[in-house]
Amino acid sequence: MTITTVGLDADDTLWHNETVFRLTQARFLDLLTDHDNAEIEARLAEIERRNLRLYGYGVKGFTLSMIETAMEMCGGDPPPGAIREILAAGREMLAHPVETLPGVDEALARLSERYRLVLVTKGDLLDQERKLAASGLGDLFAAVEIVSEKDQTTYERVFARHGTGPGEAVMAGNSMKSDVLPALEAGAFAVHIPYVVTWAHELADAPDGHARYGALDRIDALPDWIDARSDG
Amino acid sequence: MTITTVGLDADDTLWHNETVFRLTQARFLDLLTDHDNAEIEARLAEIERRNLRLYGYGVKGFTLSMIETAMEMCGGDPPPGAIREILAAGREMLAHPVETLPGVDEALARLSERYRLVLVTKGDLLDQERKLAASGLGDLFAAVEIVSEKDQTTYERVFARHGTGPGEAVMAGNSMKSDVLPALEAGAFAVHIPYVVTWAHELADAPDGHARYGALDRIDALPDWIDARSDG
């Protein structure tokens, strides 16, 4: 078995992201003082899901959905300053410093010596480019694919385009739903490396006894996991 | 001289776009009845420019900038319903039917028989993918590049990746600033095909007597223009 190419998710695999969203969401809850937190969270989740088809993933769509939630819940008359606070929170997310997760630098440096690394991520185009540049990891990647959806055909296309096909590729990331399951469907290996929190829209069950599936606690263990499966 | 690859801009080159923005902007002006149109337009343009670094190009950033403009101009207290109207206008833009410009289908069909076609466009990732799918033109393109900025290095990279380098490529589009000048700097041919209106941020002077530059009134004339320069 030869492995030539390693796909890596970005948000919550290489650097913190969901915690930034959660902090912003906590700030958002504090703005709507007349409402119960659980009620606001449920409404925001519903509005995000409804808008996903139009907005796709990322900070800008999240900001628009927070504004829509505030307007809906407050009968079109949110507390003074709330909309400006939401706009400011969105801009701060887009300017937020990038903090790589423990072990990422060493693991990627080691992987890049032996395999072609491809970043595969959803989200706002400019924001993901900014984060990659700020992470200092950009030079380790042979290619960067910012995609609107991560499904089986995405991985088939990405690994055909930048590698030697999904059969000789591994995808690693924190989302069972976006990184692991569709990569396995495409015929690639897939490794789940969970983050401390997972966005509700990304939850899914682990595959049952799949020969090409692995689960690791930390990215440190990824190079050995791949090396053990490749004679390339 | 051989030409192998033709890059095409999307918005206002293949289909209407700026007119959709202008119609939305007119609707936005009508919402802020207490203010002069010219004043609102100037403030919106300033806020868009300030946010471009964070939001990049596209409908979602435009929607956020309209909301910010309404909040700023109305001292944080815009007319009832204004914010919801802006959110609705943004969503409608993202669901707007795609109307290809006259001559596009025929010109692209002819070009695709002889050259590799690459779509090169800025904007929201998901929105541009949606518009390409809705246009029915997707199958004519060998590659699609949705980019955060169109500069010299963008064209060097795109034409190296999907063609035989900028020296054997033509870029065609409605923006002198984004489609023509940086493509010429990269060493490609470039053809300006103006649209009826141009976004203020995309205005620039035509190059002065450049051997690789052309200007056409309509895309119908593009296949002949390229064929005349290629013996490939």
From TrEMBL, chains A, B:
Region forming the signal peptide: none
Database matches in InterPro entries: HAD-like_sf, HAD_sf, PGP-like_dom2, S-2-haloacid_dehalogenase
Keyword Hydrolase: yes
Highest classification ranks of the organism: Bacteria, Pseudomonadati, Pseudomonadota, Alphaproteobacteria, Caulobacterales
A Pfam family that the UniProt record links to this protein: Hydrolase
Protein name, entry field: Putative hydrolase of the HAD superfamily
Keywords, in A-Z order: Hydrolase
A molecular-function term among this protein's GO annotations: hydrolase activity
Species per Swiss-Prot/TrEMBL record: Brevundimonas basaltis
Hydrolase among keywords: yes
